[in-house]
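LAB NOTEBOOK - FOLDING QUEUE
OPERATOR: T.R.
BATCH SIZE: 2
PURPOSE: Compare the predicted structure-token outputs for two unrelated chains run back to back under identical settings.
PRIORITY: normal
REVIEWER: second-year student, initials M.K.

ITEM 1
FIELD SEQUENCE / FIELD STRUCTURE:
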Amino acid sequence: MADSKPPLPLKPIPMKDRISLIAIQYGQIDVLDSSFVVIDQSGIRTHIPVGSVACIMLEPGTRVSHSAIKLAAQVGTLLVWVGEAGVRLYASGQPGGARSDKLLYQAKLALDDSLRIKVVRKMYEVRFGERAPERRSVEQLRGIEGSRVRETYKLLAKQYGLKWQNRKYNPKDWDSGDLPNKCLSTATSCLYGITEAAILAAGYAPAIGFIHTGKPLSFVYDIADLFKFDTVVPAAFSIAAKNPLNAERQVRLACRDIFRETKLLYKIIPMIEKVLAAGEISPPLPAPESVFPAIPIEKGIGEDGHRS
């Protein structure tokens, strides 16, 4: 009898080569031949090449096996547990984890006020296409940014013929929001999903933000805001203006198409490196007494933060 060979190690695909996101609802997820297989209520099986997807949004009615969670972690695919149509984010499964050098670099930039303001000013410049006002604190820049964002919402709402009062989102009472706010929340949830996947794949920590702070996804909000008004916000307002049935689902599908057409996954990780480089420091070197891994980690084709 021929000797059995061990399975080949899984090689995570780079983020830029992946599908941005898919959503699964009312199905049981298991693993077959190194792929996700989703069994729906009718017993129909659908195969999903999990390693080629950046983020999978799990909607209500979905059950996931232990082997599926393990496979997602190995190939660096982020699983996000969301509400119906992706309108609430309940939890996420970290697919890779921050590398210590990247994490220390990010933390040093965030903890040093003189470095943090440089990163915040770069984010302001990227977002608004102009240099940030001189001699302003992070708090002052946040106030200026908030005012400009509110004005942008008003202009876009007027452009699409929508009645707009303000940005309103209550995760405990979804129905309290009007249709434009519901569409906007759905769209930003999609953007946050693939942004978090890219941050984790690059080896950074979603919680260590520069403008936003105190939340598990603070850095996700920082980076997603750099792309939001060029991608998902116009799509959300456009669909809200049409007032279709299943508006939230239409928004999610539109976001998926926009991410593919704009090649957003090509842009997120380079943007992370660009804004952090504004701090003008190098990643800290390991301490002289540090012990390196006894078994070196093989270099794969994926990003630095992938576990396998």
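ITEM 2
FIELD SEQUENCE / FIELD STRUCTURE:
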Amino acid sequence: MLRNYSNSRTLGDNIRLGTLTAFTAGTINIASLLIFLSFTSNVTGHYAILAAEISKGNWTQVGVVGGWIFLFFFGSFLSNFIVINFNKKSKYFAHSMPIVLEIICLLFVGVYGQFYYQKTLEETEYLVALMLFATGLQNGLTASISNFSVKTTHLTGTTTDLGILASMFTQKKYRRNGELIGRAKLLMSIMLAYVMGAVFSGLTYYYLEFRVFYVISICLLIVIGYDAYKIHIRHFNTNYRYNRIYRKANIFAYLYEKIHGTPKREKKRKLVFED
């Protein structure tokens, strides 16, 4: 999900990444709505609030809402900054670091909310700001590494694109286009995962309360862990093959054979001209 970059990504990479991150985005958005009475997975509504507060001359609230918008922007900026500057050294590190930062933010919200939150306006504003920064990190990462194909923290563009694709599929020539079909599958999986995350958050919040952010963090750890598992298994198999080819002692090959058993060796076949 995180290893491949831009055009080297497959449809499966994007669907797996989009599904898991959209689920977490839906969960975050509904949790923040129930707890703080504010959406935190997008800033469309906050722009409207900003304009309304400017028209009223309420400059304190203008500063607060403007800060929220900036933090979402800064989260996206920081995410892509990490990707483009560390991508050559380690794609996995560059692509996983924004997720790690998001997990730290969400864990802080969960721990603070569970043990210290006094429901004051100032606390609410700071926690909403932190969650907007976290979702900005997520949206910036998924858009950056997928060449802007995957955006999971809001569904406005997703719904628009699905409507366009649906109209195109009324003609037979577009229904046979594999690229358009793949795009529709990706957008549908993102939409359904977001809704499922929102429903899950709504059903479990009254039992979990702030602990719902721990569940979200676990989902994000799965995103990181999946690629870490694939990378280590790939290296494990590479070392095993190295041992089988060159017949040199190797701890990875030893462990592999202990787990899977020693493969049977085929008898050496003779060439026709050797007889």
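REVIEWER COMMENT (ITEM 2): The chain has a mean pLDDT of 83.
FOLLOW-UP: none requested
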